[in-house]
User: Fold this.
Amino acid sequence: MHIIADNLTITSTRIANAVQQADPAPIIDMVRFCEASGAGMIDINSGPLTRDPAEKMTFLVESARKATRLPLLLDTSNPAAMEAGLLACQGEAVINGFSLEPDKLAHILPLARKFNTRIIGYLLHPDSSVPADGAERLTVALELSARFSEAHLPPENLIIDPVVPPLIWPNGHTQAMDVVQVIRILPDLLDYKVTTIAGISNLTSGPGNAERKPVFEQCYAAMLAAAGLDMILMNMTHTGTLAAVQACNALTGTKIFSWV
Amino acid sequence: MHIIADNLTITSTRIANAVQQADPAPIIDMVRFCEASGAGMIDINSGPLTRDPAEKMTFLVESARKATRLPLLLDTSNPAAMEAGLLACQGEAVINGFSLEPDKLAHILPLARKFNTRIIGYLLHPDSSVPADGAERLTVALELSARFSEAHLPPENLIIDPVVPPLIWPNGHTQAMDVVQVIRILPDLLDYKVTTIAGISNLTSGPGNAERKPVFEQCYAAMLAAAGLDMILMNMTHTGTLAAVQACNALTGTKIFSWV
Assistant:
């Protein structure tokens, strides 16, 4: 599994302040930390950016680029911010992301063609609700893949995110296992080796036992790895999960990594 | 996954001395520790017992029974020791185990019928070698299942062990992932919900990095859990693995276990 850092997010006070004060230093520090910890890509979660979206995303991307040549995932639902980020991004960018929501199909998906980039597609219903079970997720995946083809985009540029549920949801455990199975089944369903991504921080979001959260995150990462997940979006300060992902990569042969 | 303790083994000096001196106390202590730690069954690994096999296995079983009412897995290749253990075992016993090896088919398998117990079947070739890959393991499973039926034993009494390889084997990683897939496929292949067991201590046996070994064991346990493994044989002093198995049971819904 490729490791993608989810630490560069506007929900972090430090990053939010950096954007507010147009100070690149905290962003540069964070990106350097993530790359040094083993991230192969950096997600830039700017949020919806209601004020000055283009300016702020440009600042985030340019700041990150001062620290790394890694691919950057541009994570916003704001099309103006997304386009500004894509314009500012020297080197590889990945659009994060679209779904069957009409706004996303109309305003985000076309940017993948315009900028010839990969794009993450979320398995969500058009009203942005999460599918109820694995079968619904697979139905959405077929529809998403069809919309992708209709947009004249090459299948290898689609990265599917089946949406990891928080365990505190009433049916969170069942949905979490559905997601594992969806990742295993997707390449057969779509009839090509579609790339998959999952964000595991979501699994243990919300209240919960601080000692058990890492155990759940690590076990779930291993389950996703065995199912064939390609890209894992994670918090790089979770050293236990990082060690687990590296062990999984050794086990599944994704990466040469001696266990001894 | 049901948790089975592999701590009561003759390879432990303390247990070996207890057998030698006919002192039940260390055995009772160990069984109590395993049950208190969450084991649902106890494996009694007496080894081949070349001297006084029946007497020693009887002593082990009777000592363990002073401490627990849990099912006991009788783990020996010696038919005389096995029969003595089965005779001594008040409460449930499980025979551990047979394979396609002619001696096991002739002398161990019939005991499952005589004592009407469940029995573990190892996916090994008749010459006791480990199958080279997943396909070979599945072929052996079909043959093993056929021999089981021919012995007029009910399918629900068969517990299949696909044999977890040590990662230090040249192809250990590949074989470990083959085992995960075999566990997932077996119920479809045999066309009933066959019970499966795996001993995970074997994965990290031999030399290796003491910090990484637990990480590999925990990740592998999670992979096996997601594949549908029913019984996990493990070292109950490995608290990290125990926490992982409990988290996996919560995730897969094997056991009601709040993560919060």
Observations:
- Chain A touches chain B at residues 167-168, 173-174, 176-177, 180, 204, 207-209, 212-213, 215-216, 218-223, 225-227, 243-244, 247-248, 250-253, 259-260 (CB under 8 Å).
